Every structure is written in structure tokens, then in C-alpha cells.
Amino acid sequence: MPSWADIASPVTLTLALAAATTLVLLLVGTPIAWWLARTRTAWREPIAALVAMPLVLPPTVIGFYLLLALGPNGPGGALASLWGARTLAFSFLGLLIGSLFYSLPFMVQPLRVAFEGLDQDTLDAAATLGAGRVQTFLRVVLGASASGLVTGLILTFAHTVGEFGVVLMIGGNIPGATKVLSISIYDFVERGEWAGAHWLSAGMVVFAFVVVTATMLLDRRFGRLTG
Amino acid sequence: MRLPRRSFLGLALAVTALASVTAAEAAIVNAAVAANFTQVATDLAARFKAATGNDVQLSFGATGGLYTQITQAAPFDVFFSADDKRTATAVKDGFGVAGTEFTYAVGKVVLYSPTLDVSKGDEALKANAFQHIAIADPKSAPYGAAAMAVLDKLGLTAAVTPKIVTGENITQTLQFVDSGSAELGFVALSQVMGKPATQIWLPPQEDYPAIRQNAVLLKHGESNEVARAFLDFVKSDAAVAVIKAAGYAVE
Fold it and tell me: Fewer Cβ in 10 A, N or C end of chain B?
């Protein structure tokens, strides 16, 4: 039997990483999605492709480049030197940066689709009634895009929880700082401690089932309300 | 001419059947190989192919992971472990063939740093002027356990532990050091052969448990004569010379 700390520490760390990633991506991803949905520039699809690339790239590719970028010879190391560290790898902040890249499309894609489906007349009406841009966005756009927003939040959170390859490449497996759930499971298997692997893996299966079911139910519910 | 879809299917099936027949005749050896032996194994496989004409298909991975796959009926004929524990377990649990286990290499752990002068490694470690030291997971990787034994012997375990970053295996541990994120790390001598002497420190071999890397014939390859031939080849003088040149000792 694994000790309680062996289970609890990776679980809380993973939840913290997923929550932080989701929050930051909500703030960063929303304007990106809005821009992608509204712009008419020829650069739209190439930039959309950049955002979507983590869907296709193996996590090892992202992890490899991140390891170099976060290290002493990359921008991450330059940033880290501000507080006397040499690298952003092997830290929670490093994992957060990695997760932002890795999970970006899961926030942007559903939002972009929702924004593109907005009715231009509604937005015009809001403007006619004297709503400013910010007010229109907060009160009309977000309300009408709730389905995409919630889907994006859930998928981003869930995808970050399931992250493995990137963390493996840049984490350094430090308990409490970078040893997330998926790494713990890998470790348990690697060490032949199958009891621990079973506990965490079964938990992940249940989690994944709940998340997928919730997303589908939400989709139907919002689909009925708005469609 | 447009062929009906069915004939494509038939063609595909025929090709697949043909492929499996040729595969059986050429007697490919599937070898599960510990990550730290990657380069040597590739070299040995090429020499074996040149000498006998038989192919050795190498699958590299961390020993623990490979062993887990073997217990789940992975189609490997031979297993080159990074330790002598997993091969013994394989025989005991019925996945390995009794009497075929042997030590193909004895690993040497080294302290390695591309940036610090570690030629007097114990002093560099005691000076403790670094932020991260990379070590392979001591619970699953023998080189990690050896590194911890060396630190223990120097009385530095408590001082250094907060700075340890753990690689899943010895390959990743080297990656952490080579990328510059960790200033130094304990890796296998075989990985850093040819590096300048200032970048390497060889701890006394009696300071850590011997890293015996054992190989064993697996049940899946019991009737595969080429698999046995490959194991014999690895014991040959020619192969031993290659293994020694790569930074391992041979018993």
C-alpha cells in the first residue's frame, strides 16, 4: 500500500496546476479566440494553426523545446536569473508555462467556435442600445457563448490533469513541486509498486468518465437552450 | 482500370500473410534493452547482422517499464536489463529461461558536468555551489541507487537532497545536464565517454553497489535459435571488447 502522502501530494499538485492553467488560459485564450473569430486578416488561419499545433505535436517535442527554452541558455533562464535561479525547468512555474502551451488549443478552439456562431444583429443591437465594447462583451457575448466557455474550461482543466510527456521532459520529478499524478503513476509502475499505480489510475479513469459525461451533458443542455 | 474494392482487400491480406511468412523465416530477434545500453546494443546488433545475416530488433526503455511489458506478454526474445534484479525476477516468475542469465556488463557511475570542473568530484560536491544535481530515480534505476550510495559515503545526502532533480532513467538524467538546466549529474560512464577529463569524476567502485547488468533469454524466445546465438555473441571476445570500449567493465 502506498502512503497517504504518496497519493495526496501529486493529486493536490495536479489540481493546483490544472486550476492555474485554466485560469491563465481563460484570460489569455479568450482574447485570442475573439480575435481569431472576428479578424479578416490573411494571417488568421496561419495563426490559428499555430494555436492548434499542440493538438498534433507529440508532447515530447513540446517538452524538448521547453526544456531548452526554460534552461539557462533560453529566455526562461534569463527570466529566472531575476530571482537568482538558473532555470525555470524543475519548478511549478515551469510546468505552468509548459501547460499553457500544451493546453492552449483546448481553451481557444471551443471559444472560437462559439464566438463565430454569434449573431451579428445581437451585437449591433447591444451597440445601438448604448452598450460599450467591454459591456457588450461581458454581458452579451459571454452569455451567448456560455456553452463554448464551459466546454473550454472543462477541457483545459481535464487536459492539464492528463498531461504527461511535457512534465516528464521538464519536471525533474520533485515531490510537491513537479511530481504530478501522471508521473506518480509512471513511477509506481516503474518501481513495481502496482498498488499505488492501481489507486491513482483507477481514480483517473473515474475522473475522465465524469469529465467527459459532464461535457456531453452540458453540451446537450446548452444546445437545447440556445439552439 | 478500376479494381473492385474487394480485390484490394484480398491483395492487402495476401501481402500481410506473405510478410509474416518471410518474418518467420528470417528469424528476427526481438530484444528489450535497457536505455543506458542503447549505443552498444545498436553496435552489437549491427556486428551480429554482419556476422550471421540475422536481424536484431531493439526496443529501448527503462528497465522497470520493459519488465512490466514482459510480464504482460510483450513479444521479446531476450531482455538486457540495467540490473541483476529484474532478470532474476523474470526467471523466478516464469518469464525467463532458467540458466540463461548472465552479466553482460558492469556499469560505472560518474559525476558529470559540462560547465563545472568536477575532476575532483568529491570536492565539487562538498562545495555545494550548484542549484540542481540530476540523478536517476534511485528506486528504479541502479545508477540512481549508486549515486545515492556515493553521496551517502561522502556524508552529503542531507545537504544535496533538496537540490536533486530526478530523471526517469539514465538517459533523461543526462538530458537534464546536457540541456544546462542541472549543472551536474550522476550518469553512466558509457554515456560520457570521450568528454574532457575535467568534466568527469569516477567515484571509487567500492563506494557503491556493483551495477551488474544482466541479460536473460525469455520464454517467448526459448525456441528461437537466433536469440540464443545473439546471447552467445554478446559473450564473445569481439563483443566484450566493444562493451569495454564503451565504458563498462565485464566480469
Answer: N
* Interchain contact A63–B (C-beta under 8 A): no
Q: Which residues pair with A184 in a beta bridge?
A: none
Q: Do A67 and B137 make contact, defined as CB atoms within 8 angstroms?
A: no
* Mean pLDDT comparison of A74-83, A91-100, A184-193, highest-scoring range: A91-100
Task: Give residue B44's pLDDT.
Answer: 97
Strands B102-107 and B184-188: unpaired
- Give the pLDDT band of residue B189 (cuts 50, 70, 90): very high
Residue B128 has pLDDT above 50, yes or no: yes
Fold of A4-115+142-226: MetI-like fold (1.10.3720)
Nearest to A89 among B166, B168, B181 (CB): B181
| Cα–Cα distance, B80 to B86 (Å, whole number) | 10
Using an 8 Å CB-CB cutoff, list residues of chain B that contact chain A: 62, 64-65, 67-68, 131-132, 134, 137, 139-140, 164-168, 172, 175-176, 179-183
Q: Is the pLDDT of residue B8 over 70?
A: no
More confident residue, A190 or A201: A201
What would the pLDDT profile of B47-91 be if each residue is shown by its tens digit?
A: 999 999 999 999 988 788 889 889 888 899 999 998 999 999 999
| B183/A68 touch (CB, cutoff 8 Å), yes or no | no
pTM, entire model: 0.76
Mutation to test the B interface, candidates A66, A87, A198, most B Cβ within 10 Å: A87
CA dist A33 → A38, A97, A109, A110, B194 (Å)? 9, 19, 7, 9, 51
Task: Report residue A36 as a C-alpha cell.
Answer: 481569431
B165: nearest CB among A70, A77, A90: A90
Question: Which of B165, B166, B180 lies nearest to residue A72, judging by beta carbons?
Answer: B180
The CA distance from A192 to the nearest CA of chain B, in Å, is: 7
What pLDDT does residue A53 have?
94
| Residue in chain A lying closest to B173 (CA) | A172
Q: Which domains does chain B have, with CATH numbers?
A: 5-106+211-245 (3.40.190.10), 109-201 (3.40.190.10)
Residue with cell 475573439: A34
The ipTM (two decimal places) reads 0.72
Residues B174 and B182 sit within 8 Å (Cβ to Cβ): no
Instruction: From chain B, pick out residues whose CB is under 8 angstroms from the CB of A186.
Output: 168
| All residues at 6 or more sequence positions from B118 whose CB lies less than 8 Å from its CB, including other chains | B111, B112, B124, B184, B198, B199, B200, B201
**Given this model, what pLDDT does residue B4 score?**
47
